[in-house]
Design a protein that fits this description.
By secondary structure, this protein is α/β, with parallel strands linked by helices. The protein folds into 2 domains: 148 residues, Rossmann fold, CATH 3.40.50; 73 residues, SIR2/SIRT2 'Small Domain'. The protein has a 6-stranded parallel β-sheet, sandwiched between helices. The protein is elongated, with a radius of gyration of 19 Å.
Length: 249
Amino acid sequence: MLSESLIAKLRGAESVCVLTGAGISAESGVPTFRGEDGLWKKFKPEELANFDAFISNPDLVWEWYAYRRRIIQEVKPNPGHHALVELEKRIPDFTLVTQNVDNLHRRAGSNHILELHGNIERSYCIDCRTFDSDIDVKELKGVPRCKKCGGLIRPDVVWFGEILPLAVLSEAVSAASRCDIFFSVGTSAIVYPAASLPYTALEHGAYVVQINREHTDLSLSAHETMLGKAGDILPQLVEALDKHPRGGV
């Protein structure tokens, strides 16, 4: 059940910022890639998702990411993703910040997306930085090479030991600072710096709402915590907003 307070605030909100994490992707069937069967069960993500591992054995690291991309390409955005698309259409200033690399928000139709950890469906050359999004992972055997300079192509994701893209992080902090309502959706809110965003919103007077399957540390500070699936709760928010239009009586 949505609170009347949240509905009223959403009706009057000019700026909304949403942070999403692995929980919303899990509802689409995206695995966490830990403890997988077969070859990859031998490895921890930390052993593969770092630059040194890529340089030491680029074919192995690329094969792992190709495996992950094939799985992700088989899943679809869920009602939670689609509800955020609809919410974006109804809010004048809407920013979607995600920790996920699966590209499901973009496939659902969201436009203003800040990808803190990159996008697994994009790749770039480590030498000349040329981006390449047309790689067919089903056809490749081994790491691809740059068409321009012959350099190794790597996934456009943030690996262990790498910093987040500063421009993207700065824009996320700005969105959290100016929003009227901040939603934390499907995230444990413990991985920094992303986990600091709801607290930034709180410090600047935003109404902070957590949507998650279980309580987190953020539950102690958020104005509301709604336990459940994003795919169930977010569509209710859109429906409530449509029943009580912005500026309506």
